[in-house]
Amino acid sequence: MSTGVAIVGAAESDLGVTNRSILGLQAQAVSRALDDAGLTLRDVDGIATTGVSRFSATQLADYFGIEPRWTDSTFAGGSAFEMFVARAVQAIQAGQAETVVISFASNQRSARSRSLGGVVEDHTPEAQFETPYGPLYPLSYYAMAAQRYLHTYGKTREQLAEIAVAAREWALLNPAAFRYGKGPLTADDVVGSAMISSPLTALDSCLVTDGGGAVVLTSAERARDLRRRPVEVLGYGERTTNTSMTAVPDLTVTGAAGSGADAFARAGVTPADIDVVQVYDSFTITVALTLEGLGFCGRGEALDWIAGGRIRPGGDFPLNTSGGGLSYCHPGQFGILLLVEAVRQLRGECGDRQVPDARLAVAHGTGGILSTHATVVLGVDA
């Protein structure tokens, strides 16, 4: 099944420590993605972007000097970009736009800031029941989920560390990765790194880098005449579950179950059909909870399921093949780069980290403190 809409361009901006402005990085990502597609800004009539700063779709359009017919600036954290894919598909299907660019960039590392706008207003439940305890936002919230998960299912920090170890193995195959050339990790390295919020250490946690990316979408019919092999959007789904942890009845269950089920149903595929998977890895626990929610394994099974090198290069479940937010790049919101990597894998452009014969991919974003969840299924013709 297909939506009749395809991704026709995908690119990163400069990554790492760039000393560039946010809009400068946005311009890099968008211009590179358009060039990848064989298009120009004159072709763009739709923009979707959001950010850790105030640069919305309106400001990006102004910066580019264009007047789009359609925009979206939904702020949902790291899942926003997978949500944007759904919105862009719907806009193109409805004739509101012909060519949509989805983009994001941040200069967090150059700016020496990890702020994600996590300011708690005085009247909210989290201000009353959580803030007085001084949690680190968002780390301490994910740490609570990790603590509950390890306790409930009798798992160990060493098992959880496998997610970071595997991400580093993939990053060593990606010259664009921030940790490229830094050497492999062991579970002991991860567990023994600085404790930040128990049980999560520095190496259980994502990077802080500059960077961004962009993807370009248009109709599948038009895509056939463009420069690159089109990657069709087959399905999508989303869920919004909570703002604070006070509202969460079970920290080991996420909205990925609903978003994934909808995406797979729309695409007419099952988790077993997927060749390559890109999921948000803000922290190691995020990956475990997401794999279970998406149905790749049962509840409480993820850490056993990934053991033995299954998610490392050469394993039978290629996961976060760029190196992910843990070892490749994390500019505050990573969801756009999940899409970029999924597209490149399906087009066969990933060099040493290429997954052979990849035809179906999932990109899944998570935002806030396990608050928002969005899943996209992508595919190419055999």
UniProtKB/TrEMBL annotation:
GO MF terms, alphabetically ordered: acyltransferase activity, transferring groups other than amino-acyl groups
InterPro entries membership: Thiolase, Thiolase-like, Thiolase_C_2
Keyword terms, alphabetized: Transferase
Mention any Pfam family matching this sequence.
Thiolase_C_1
The lineage's top-level taxon is: Bacteria
Q: Where is the Thiolase C-terminal domain?
A: 237-379
PANTHER family under this entry? ACETYL-COA C-ACETYLTRANSFERASE, NON-SPECIFIC LIPID-TRANSFER PROTEIN-LIKE 2
> What is the official name of this protein in its record?
Acetyl-CoA acetyltransferase
Species the sequence originates in: Actinomadura hallensis
